[in-house]
Amino acid sequence: MGIAEIQEEIIDEFSMFDDWMQRYEYMIELGKSLPLIDEAYKTDDNIIKGCQSKVWVHAELDEDKLVFTADSDAIITKGIIAILIRAFSHQKPQDIIDANTDFIDEIGLKEHLSPTRANGLVSMIKQLKLYAIAYQTQLN
Amino acid sequence: MGMVRTSLDVATIRKDFPILNREVNGRPLVYLDNAATSQTPQQVIDVIVDYYHNYNANIHRGVHALSQEATDAYEEARQKIQKHFNIAKADEVIFTSGTTHAINLVANGFSSFLKTGDEILVSAMEHHSNIVPWQMLAERTGAVLKVIPMNQNGELVMEQFHELLSEKTQLVFCNHISNALGTINPIKEIIDASHEVGAAVLIDGAQAAPHIKADMQALDVDFYTVSAHKLCGPTGVGMLYGKEEWLKKLPPYQGGGEMIAEVTFEKTTYADLPHKFEAGTPNIAGGIAFGAALDYLNQIGLEAIAQYEEELLKYATKKLLDIEGLKIYGTAEKKTSVISFNIKGIHPYDIGTILDKLGIAVRTGHHCAQPIMDFYQIPGTVRASFSFYNTKEEVDTLVEGVKRARNMLL
């Protein structure tokens, strides 16, 4: 499935929820089920410093696709990471570079992507794209 | 719940604060981030609006009526501040943009007095704004920064403070009240002991001023700093109190208009106090509103405020401690209405996010006091800070919110 299709799928899932409580509970569940990043990659080099919660991201190439693993010390942040990874992992670098993140607005989590929000998620998206650019260069 | 007897008429007081009527995320706002900034009563807002409606003009230099009115109002505010803090001379009140500016002004001034081997003492529970300027000062001068440690309750270890003091100590810096923990520090003891070895003392009063009326002459402190926005005044204005002898000795911080007596290209003569430290056009409306905020607080009475906030603190502490896994950081015997806490197994950011969805404003994170968080080995805390316009019902809402967050997150 391409990034756009996965994003549509996520929007569909979230449209089932009536209120923020349900959305957050679902997100917290996603956070808890996020496959853990290999401890070896949970290093300071891989840390994205938000002001409050820490986020670690690791990327590696599987043939022509980029695979992301990530973690955070805050569970809500981890839930959003799980959503982002679902959308962007196992995709071609060029597709990641071209993708947008509007679906986050549509599932009612816009407030988490404000650049002034101190959770490191904006930096995380930027980091995913930077990895994609770096690996795209390598593939070329 | 039953009728609550309080020394303040909170229902009437709340009517003074228009912002308390608003909703957040579809729920009535419960504002518990007062240690970060207090809300502004209509009486203070009116003073700001009145200034811009009726007598906005630059001060101290105009020949015209508006300038004179603005100057009078600004200087009257200075006198209100002088009176409130029982300061000997109005010239010892320097308007600044806030506490951070005031501390930097003093730190910068001291760079011309300090030499290699001199020591600066700073408490372990400082706000970053009271650590970084001294670190920069130490780097510039070769002086050594030493730390007064704290114990698990969040109290300064005074025995060690006395041991650290020596004739090498030139400066001692400490907050009156810790922003992250609410601890009220024994500043009189610190000031007196420091003076015995000839050291100057700066007390950061940012967190204390909304709760305690500090008496500068009785404290005999050398410098004391206050931010208006913590005490129902506007942002961007504050006070540096300095003893006249120190202010005369310190070099000016910034060059510009207002702070000069005479300028030629060869030499500038600096203006007298307080203008020597007030370069450029100040925050005129802010300064006047600062005075109005003190009027507002004094009309209610700081003792009544402190007594009511103590009630809220006790009530909230008891109810929060009933929640399983909840730990409060900062359990000093003497503390103000600040509760810093965590729940075992939950990141403070997650609790803050859920509380925000419930319309409850708290602060989460390290509260610009990372050394304290390192001391407790935690990433941060959730901090609820109460003001005299908060109610026990709001405490109940907080407690319910925290329980709900706990259920969702664990």
Automatic annotation (TrEMBL), chain A:
Gene3D superfamilies: 3.90.1010.10. Residues 12-129 form the Fe-S metabolism associated domain. Pfam families: SufE. It comes from the Bacteria. InterPro entries: Fe-S_metab-assoc_dom. Belongs to the SufE family. This is Cysteine desulfuration protein SufE.
Automatic annotation (TrEMBL), chain B:
Its cofactor is pyridoxal 5'-phosphate. Gene3D superfamilies: Aspartate Aminotransferase, domain 1 (3.90.1150.10), Type I PLP-dependent aspartate aminotransferase-like (Major domain) (3.40.640.10). Transmembrane segments: none annotated. GO terms for molecular function: cysteine desulfurase activity; lyase activity; pyridoxal phosphate binding. Pfam families: Aminotran_5. The keyword Ribonucleoprotein does not apply. The keyword Transferase applies. It catalyses: (sulfur carrier)-H + L-cysteine = (sulfur carrier)-SH + L-alanine. GO terms for biological process: cysteine metabolic process. Catalyzes the removal of elemental sulfur and selenium atoms from L-cysteine, L-cystine, L-selenocysteine, and L-selenocystine to produce L-alanine. This is Cysteine desulfurase. It comes from Flagellimonas meridianipacifica.
